[in-house]
From TrEMBL:
Residues 75-356 form the ABC transmembrane type-1 domain. One of its GO terms (molecular function) is ABC-type oligopeptide transporter activity. Residues 625-647 have a biased composition (Polar residues). Residues 678-695 have a biased composition (Basic and acidic residues). Keywords: ATP-binding, Cell inner membrane, Cell membrane, Membrane, Nucleotide-binding, Transmembrane, Transmembrane helix, Transport. Pfam families: ABC_membrane, ABC_tran. Signal peptide: none annotated. It is found in: Cell membrane. The keyword Membrane applies. PANTHER family: ATP-BINDING CASSETTE SUB-FAMILY B MEMBER 10, MITOCHONDRIAL, ATP-DEPENDENT PERMEASE MDL1, MITOCHONDRIAL. It is a multi-pass membrane protein. This is Putative ABC transporter permease/ATP-binding protein. The keyword Transmembrane helix applies.
Length: 695
């Protein structure tokens, strides 16, 4: 996979600026240019680690969806805003009338006018208050809905897509981008609305007062339009770019924090700081570019909206001297000219905020896009007739990102109820096979079926109910032990949960817990070792009782005896099981062993038959048996069990999981390609990691 950091580095700021300028001058509609900008950045990034960004046009759809159900509130908001703006703009006219008629009008008339002015000021204050209050109510409602939608979209993203994306990108969208959209909806959009309505009412008031004295203000308008258009041509792409590099900075910070122990163990602090500095450099360059765009806009607009005051005054004095207007009209025109810059200034100041919000909304809406992924097909009508739970691969080929085929002409049939152990060298394609069988990815060629139905076309809920994939990754949710297991299936009884825990060898340490299934886990609760967490992850799936289970080194952190017992429990009840294993004593317990090499199945058969033949498995076995003390012919390893002694706090004591913990920890950090900045040679670092693990 191309290195995103290296690609970013090659994109010097001037190149970005040049490309942005080019985009801005290209012909085409605003929407076409936004699409071009997105295509450009996709190319610049040269990888699909970032989640998709919705076309800017989609943002309107998102906001319309958010508005649904709040239309009444929005209408009220607009009414309050318009009334407040009109009241504000009536004041200069009333003051002008007061000035022009002060001498001629009787005292009662002046008093009436003064009362009217006081009334209008009161009206303006009340409606400004109501508008401000409604802005917060509407904004908060929409923000809450948006957050819910973003989290829902993130949770329903295809697994393959989440795996490809960096965690920083997803986190940035769910936190920072969602916050920005919320702020925009709560603050910037109402401000823009109020400023736009106020500007229009001022302009209308000016024209009604004196078309002649409106001319200087109108002369500034072309400059406003030109500067705004220029800004809007360049800004979307620039803000998109800024959002993207910001995500990468966050990803680096998150990953460093996530793997902080490993960073310390391997003394990678300086490498991580260098990586952060490089990414921060890109962020500050992008921010400098967007700041430059804003400053140029502000400068042009400052000139455009400040200059009418003096010409209006001069023109007004001249018109008065000619007797074309009275003193009240002149006063009103000057008051309008004085009040004109404020809303226009507010409009411009909040424009940058609105644009940032639109771009963040495009990034949040991007979570809703499901193109380019196998899982998109799960919404297609199922192909084939459902005939149970046998798994079948026919002439399957698969490649990652259009690279070489990592699975090639692979044929495999697993009848319902059979347990199959898959063994083979690292990189032979075992995990890829597991991903295809569990529907995370679809084959490039050939077919993968479950009970005769193409896996990639089975609706996701149905597929998830039938096939469970358990990997080395495990997670303990904050909550009770009961909740942690019970969330896999509704209406599980305590005895079901205990049975699932016992099936994964957790019985002894469960007995140590004073609060039993009520024991709180996670933050502020009992902290479990990774091996215990792995037991919980498997128990959770066992409790769900799916007819097909695919285990991808799912017991790697458990001690050998427990691992063996767990794999046997999983295969019980004639469940269909495909287990990827590195330890051959576990493979020996399967009905059949399948040996993979170079993306193909090179051997398949009962373990004892394969062991007695002179094939690949026999060689693997003799190597493994030679390296593993205690292993012997046809005899699974009697491994060391983690000694379980109850500690005073009710948790289990453990002695043999530490190496497993470090191995799991390092592999997690490496698997995500998270830890090693681009300038390091990954092979070298892997070697360092291995040394660190061994020592
Ligand atoms: N996300 C990915 N993107 C690109 N290539 C990948 C990806 N995942 C795996 N590969 C490549 O596909 C090939 C098969 O990998 P796979 O993980 O399926 O093998 P494996 O037999 O499970 O290896 P291991 O035992 O080390 O887990 C390898 O060459 C690997 O580098």
């Amino acid at each position: 996979m191309a290195d995103p950091i290296a690609l970013d580095r090659s994109a010097e700021t001037w190149e970005v600026a040049e490309a942005l300028d080019q985009l801005a001058t290209d012909r085409g509609t605003h929407r076409q240019r936004a699409a071009q900008a997105q295509a450009y950045f996709a190319e610049l990034e040269g990888n699909d680690r970032d989640l998709p960004v919705a076309p800017l046009g989609e943002v309107g759809r998102l906001w319309r969806t958010q508005l649904r159900g709040s239309v009444g509130l929005v209408v009220l908001l607009i009414v309050f805003t318009v009334v407040a703006a009109v009241a504000t703009q009536t004041l200069p006219r009333l003051l002008g009338s007061l000035v022009s008629s002060a001498e001629s009008m009787p005292t009662d008339g002046v008093r009436g006018l003064l009362l009217l002015i006081v009334g209008v000021v009161g009206l303006q204050a009340i409606f400004t208050y109501l508008a401000a209050r409604w802005e917060v109510i509407v904004g908060q409602r929409m923000t809450a809905k948006l957050r819910e939608k973003a989290v829902r979209d993130a949770l329903s993203l295809p697994l393959g897509r989440i795996e490809r994306a960096s965690s920083g990108d997803l986190t940035t969208r769910l936190t920072q981008d969602s916050n920005v959209v919320g702020d925009t909806l709560r603050n910037d959009v109402p401000q823009v609305l109020l400023a736009a309505i106020t500007s229009i009412t001022i302009l209308l008031g000016m024209v009604l007062n004196s078309p002649l004295l409106t001319v200087p203000t109108l002369l500034g308008l072309p400059l406003i339009v030109w500067a705004s258009r220029r800004f809007l041509r360049r800004a979307p792409a620039a803000y998109l770019y800024a959002g993207s590099v910001d995500s990468r900075l966050n990803a680096s910070v998150l990953e460093t924090v996530d793997c902080v122990r490993l960073v310390r163990t391997l003394r990678l602090e300086n490498a991580r700081l260098d990586d952060l500095a490089d990414r921060f450099q890109l962020v500050s360059e992008a921010q400098r570019y967007t700041l430059g765009l804003r400053l140029r806009l502000f400068f042009a607009l400052e000139v455009a909206y400040n200059w009418p005051l003096v010409p209006t005054l001069l023109l007004g004095v001249f018109a008065r001297s000619q007797g074309w207007i009275d003193i009240g009209t002149l006063t009103t025109a000057v008051l309008y000219s004085l009040s004109w810059p404020a809303p226009v200034n507010r409009l411009v100041q909040t424009l940058g905020g609105v644009l940032t919000g639109v771009v963040s909304a495009a990034r949040v809406t991007g979570l809703d896009l499901r193109d380019r992924d196998a899982e998109a097909q799960h919404s297609m009508p199922p192909r084939g007739t459902d005939r149970g739970t046998d798994l079948r691969c026919d002439e399957v080929a698969f490649s990652y990102d259009g690279g070489h085929d990592v699975l090639d002409q692979l044929d495999l049939t697993i009848p319902a109820g059979e347990s199959v152990a898959v063994v083979g060298a690292s990189g032979s394609g075992k995990s890829t096979l597991a991903r295809l069988l569990s529907g995370i990815a679809a084959p490039g060629r050939g077919s993968v079926t479950l009970g005769g139905v193409e896996v990639s076309t089975i609706p996701l809920p149905e597929l998830r109910a039938k096939v469970a994939l358990v990997t080395q990754e495990h997670h303990v949710f904050t909550g009770s032990l009961r909740d942690n297991i019970g969330l896999s299936r509704q209406q599980l009884t305590d005895s079901d949960i205990v049975a699932a825990l016992q099936a994964v060898g957790a019985g002894p340490w469960l007995a140590c817990l004073q609060e039993g299934l009520d024991t709180q886990l996670g933050v502020d609760g009992l902290s479990l070792s990774p091996a215990r967490a792995q037991q919980i992850a498997i128990a959770r799936i066992l409790a769900a009782d799916p007819p097909v289970m695919i285990l991808d080194e799912a017991t790697s952190l458990l001690d050998p005896t427990t691992a063996l017992a767990v794999e046997r429990s999983v295969a019980g009840d004639r469940r269909t099981v495909l287990a990827i294993v590195h330890r051959l004593d576990i493979a020996e317990t399967a009905d059949r062993v399948v040996v993979m090499d170079g993306g193909r199945i090179v051997e398949s058969g009962p373990p004892n038959r394969l062991r007695d033949s002179a094939g690949v498995y026999a060689q693997l076995w003799s190597t493994w048996a030679g390296q593993t003390p205690g292993s012997g012919e046809n005899r699974p390893t009697q491994g060391r069990t983690a000694s379980t002694t109850c500690r005073s706090d009710g948790a289990e004591g453990e002695s043999s999981d530490r190496l497993g913990w470090l191995t799991g920890f390092t592999s997690r950090c490496l698997d995500g390609d998270v830890l090693i900045p681009s300038r390091r040679d990954p092979t070298q670092t892997r070697r360092e990691l291995t040394r660190g693990t061994e020592s």
